[in-house]
Design brief:
The protein is built from 21 helices and eleven strands. The strands form two sheets. Strands 1, 2, 3, 4, 5, 6, 7 and 8 form an eight-stranded mixed sheet that branches. Helix 10 packs across helix 11. Strand 10 and strand 11 form a beta hairpin. With 462 residues, the protein is of the alpha/beta class.
């Protein structure tokens, strides 16, 4: 026992490395994780005190634990058995397929990434690109939503800036969990999006097993009271108008609710822009048979460099107004009491109607609609008409004449409209963009434009 044992230096160093790894994994790492976990829990507790809707424990659970809950859920278990039988594969193979789907769907929310990074970045981008306006159709109704209810924000999809804008504006309410399509499943963007609490969905998956795993995740999140955000259209609008709603995700949320349990409240959130950043890409995609957005990374990078260059030389201009309006909330419990036959379809129809009612009008689209309807208009009359329409649209924050003139000037600069002898008319060069922006204003035609027709005509004839 007291004899000297000689070892080669490389073997001695290898033993030290193994000893250090063993010590770290068994003693150091657990202690460090516990220390930071305790600090994070205290930070989240302080954060929840200022949020209108606190972050639910389900959202803070470890990703591994959430995946385990999904794949061992009875709903997924039955789907695994059916998949194995239909595909003629062992249940172990079907189970691993379900695990792969769960890993693809489940987020890994980080309160630090969301509130320290994402919110600040969203605020910076929103205010750098736009003059942001927020309004409400019924602010009191929003404040009176049951604190225990699961809130689902239902939004029209105009631009990829929608995610950024609503994340920024909802920063004092809660952490939103978005349903994100396949476009964001690229590294390293996917890691950031998962850290923000978003979950990925395959919009065109034909696998019943995949749909059951997704439905199971939505059920767990809804029952846990996680605040969610969804785009019922399923993709960006190619025409400027509202698209037909997709019922899949909405049905999962409805099926997840117990009529006697926690209520789900849907809040329409309507967005509109003087300029949609992707408008040229979207209108080109509308000409094809498939939704393919041909935005090369080089083109995007060059656009970003140009914007930075303009800011450095003092020639940068924001892209006008970005307006967001909260609509009238819809309680699922109350809605279910009046609609029993086809609940999902009826609710989707009412939500899209709520979005249409809440859709804010902004100067650019209003100018396009008026020029499309009336042809050539004296610029002074056009400014006055737009002002009348905006006032009738119920904007809580007045839009000054300078913002209206800026919206019209932007359309002239982009050759959508032209100015000739003090009159504004279509340039005839970019009709697709004129129609695209006019369509978003025409959505408000029954509610605002028709109601204002007499006033607009009076201005035009004066």
């Amino acid at each position: 026992m007291t004899q000297t044992v000689e070892l080669p230096l490389w073997l001695f160093l290898l033993i030290l490395v193994f000893a250090a790894v063993t010590f770290a994994s068994h003693f150091l790492f657990p202690s460090v994780r516990w220390f930071f976990r305790r600090r994070l829990e205290r930070a989240v507790k302080r954060l929840n005190e200022r949020l209108q809707r606190p972050i639910q424990p389900f959202k803070l659970a470890r990703r591994h634990d959430m995946i385990q809950r999904l794949i061992y859920d009875p709903q997924v278990g039955h789907a695994v058995q059916s998949f194995a039988k239909e595909e003629g594969v062992p249940e172990a193979v079907a189970f691993e397929t379900a695990r792969r789907y769960a890993r693809e769907i489940v987020p890994s929310f980080s309160a630090v990434a969301y509130f320290s990074v994402a919110i600040r970045l969203a605020r910076m981008l929103s205010n750098a690109f736009y003059d942001v306006r927020l309004s409400y159709m019924d602010e009191k109704a929003l404040r009176n939503i049951d604190p225990e209810a699961t809130v689902v924000y239902v939004m029209n999809h105009r631009s990829n800036m929608d995610y950024v804008l609503v994340t920024y504006l909802a920063a004092n309410q809660s952490a939103l969990s978005y349903a994100v399509g396949e476009w964001a499943r690229v590294w390293p963007l996917s890691r950031l999006i998962r850290a923000m609490g978003a979950y990925f969905i395959r919009r065109k998956s034909g696998s019943e097993l995949y749909r059951q795993v997704l439905a199971c995740y939505v059920r767990h999140a809804t029952k846990a009271g996680v605040t969610q955000a969804m785009f019922p259209e399923g993709g960006l609008s190619l025409t400027g108008g509202l698209g037909r709603p997709k019922l899949g995700l909405l049905k999962y949320i409805i099926d997840a609710t117990d009529p006697e349990g926690r209520d789900v409240v849907f809040v329409p959130v309507a967005l509109n822009y003087d300029r949609v950043l992707e408008d040229t890409i979207l209108t080109k995609a509308a000409l094809g048979n498939q939704r393919r957005f041909r935005a090369r990374i080089g083109v995007i990078a060059w656009w970003i460099i140009k914007q930075i260059g303009r800011r450095l030389v003092g020639r940068y201009k924001r892209f006008g107004l970005a307006s967001v309006r909260y609509g009238q909330p819809i309680s699922l419990k109350a809605f279910r009491a009046d609609h029993e036959a086809d609940l999902t379809t009826d609710l989707a129809r009412d939500l899209m109607a709520g979005l249409k009612d809440a859709l804010p009008l902004v100067p650019g689209p209003a100018a396009c609609w008026l020029v499309q309807e009336k042809g050539e208009i004296p610029e002074g009359d056009l400014i006055a008409m737009i002002d009348k329409l905006l006032r009738n649209n119920g904007a809580e924050m007045p839009i000054d004449r300078e913002a209206i003139e800026s919206g019209v000037q932007q359309l002239v600069d982009r050759r959508i409209l032209k100015r000739d002898s003090g009159k504004i008319s279509s340039s005839g060069q970019r009709i697709d963009l004129l129609n695209y922006y006019a369509a978003s204003a025409a959505l408000s035609e029954e509610r605002v434009l028709s109601a204002s027709a007499k006033e607009v005509s009076a201005v035009a004839g004066s």
